[in-house]
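Board work, copied verbatim: Adenosine 5'-phosphosulfate reductase
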Amino acid sequence: MINFLQGPSGSFKDPEVSPAGPKDTEPLDPEVRARNEELVDTYARELYDAPAETILSWAHENAPGKLVVTLSMENTVLAELAERHLPDADFLFLDTEYHFPETLEVADEVERRYPSHKLVRTKAILSRAEQDATYGPNLYRLNPTACCRMRKVEPLAVHMSPYAGWITGLRRADGPTRAKAPALSLDNTGRLKISPLVTWTLEDTDEFEETNNLIIHPLTRQGYPSIGCATCTLPVAEGQDPRAGRWAFSAKTECGLHE
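↓ predict structure ↓
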């Protein structure tokens, strides 16, 4: 039985129950899944501390299918590296409809600067207004985990179906929850999860951006070292955990994409 939350406009649906619609990734071809498992078993240790260029060149040569580069638009380092080392990869951006305007502007600039890579923009089943009407306003504050699930985790799962693996921007320096992140692993669908920036620091990222004249998200120069939705991201003080401004109103530390 579905529970309901009481709100000023009446009854709202239980946010633990997502709206009807596609939410899951299609199963991989068994041969591709088996090859992915073999690749991780063979190469994960070797690539653990490898340079980003080495990891991406390895991915281009070895992945048994098409890859997608996930971009939060916090920075465009992965877009630039993919341009150099993954010419056939797509780009994917989770448009939660809660982003800072600057984040959307960066996405548009990426699409113009890297036209050889298809930019896939995902959206949740419900629009922002429909979510408010269904689950109540400000779900991101009342139940941020449910909001992230519906607006990030499930859209990513659906749009991951065509790919044998994905490239992420995880960095071990981003905080204790990521301190031991591997460069190469399998996600829960058997797809390759490749994180070429795991050894990078924020300073490495800034230097690469400046040296290569990359598109820069302006908020990263205004106290926002980690940027998510505008409703859930605050600036952080110098020396704080870079992700301290994410979901600062709750104990939440991850959106669910990397758990």
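The radius of gyration is 19 Å.
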